[in-house]
Amino acid sequence: MATATMTAPATTDERAIAELQREHGPALLSFLQGLTYGDQQRAEDLLQETLVRAWQHPEAFDGPYESMRPWLFTVGRRLAIDARRSRLARPTEIGDGVLATTPDPLDVTESAVAALDVRAAVDSLSPEHRAVLERIYFQGLSVNEAAESLGIPPGTVKSRSYYALRALARSLPGYARSRAAVRPTRS
């Protein structure tokens, strides 16, 4: 590894930057890949930005360094930290693929198909499980009210609703919801 003192006039010319990239680019790129968890594209962007900073600051070439490598690594590390903070400070971007697969909420066909799927899944339940779900979710009764109308204990209502919802989740895999979204809210 050759270390040479690089001096440049008040403005940095392209030859000096090209030599800087040849001499330190591969090591700097490897270092930046480590900082970006192996993201080649991001590391290359950071390398390019580091070299732009070197071009914008010709005084760095006249520094007391035996090599420009420590200065370049410091600038690259700071740019990587700034880029990470910037990404964490803004919301996650949504790619086109997600938007393409998301159904249109105004499409009545999707709603009709979903309603038919749910109706068929509810019809596949045992009469006891279906009765509990009808009382709790379709009529809006509490667990105690459903237990009273069905003439069974509240614990049995809770148990049947739990197993009925599990059966529905198995028969409707494309409609998975979080457990909190399907629990009854009133006791």
Question: What report would you give on this structure?
Answer:
The chain contains nine helices and no strands. The longest helix is centred in the first third of the chain and has 22 residues, at 14-35. With 187 residues, it is mainly alpha-helical. The chain is rod-shaped and about 90 Å long. Helices cover 66% and strands 0% of the residues. It folds into two domains: 14-89, Orthogonal Bundle (Rna Polymerase Sigma Factor, Chain: A), CATH 1.10.1740; 106-182, Orthogonal Bundle (Arc Repressor Mutant, subunit A). It has helices spanning 14-35, 40-56, 69-89, 96-101, 108-123, 127-138, 143-150, 154-171, 179-182. The relative contact order is 0.08.
- CATH homologous group name of the largest domain: Winged helix-like DNA-binding domain superfamily/Winged helix DNA-binding domain
| Overall structural domain count | 2
User: What is the 3D form?
Assistant: rod-shaped
Low-confidence parts lasting 5 or more residues at pLDDT below 50? 1-10, 178-185
The main β sheet shows up as: none
The CATH class of the largest domain: Mainly Alpha
CATH topology of the largest domain, by name, is Arc Repressor Mutant, subunit A
Note the run of SSEs as H and E.
HHHHHHHHH
Beta strand %? under 5%
Overall pLDDT level: 80
> Helical proportion?
55-70%
**Proper CATH architecture of the largest domain:** Orthogonal Bundle
Instruction: Determine the structural class based on helices, strands and strand pairing.
Output: mainly alpha
Radius of gyration: 32 Å
Helix count, per DSSP?
9
Q: How far do the termini sit from each other?
A: 74 Å
DSSP, total strands? 0
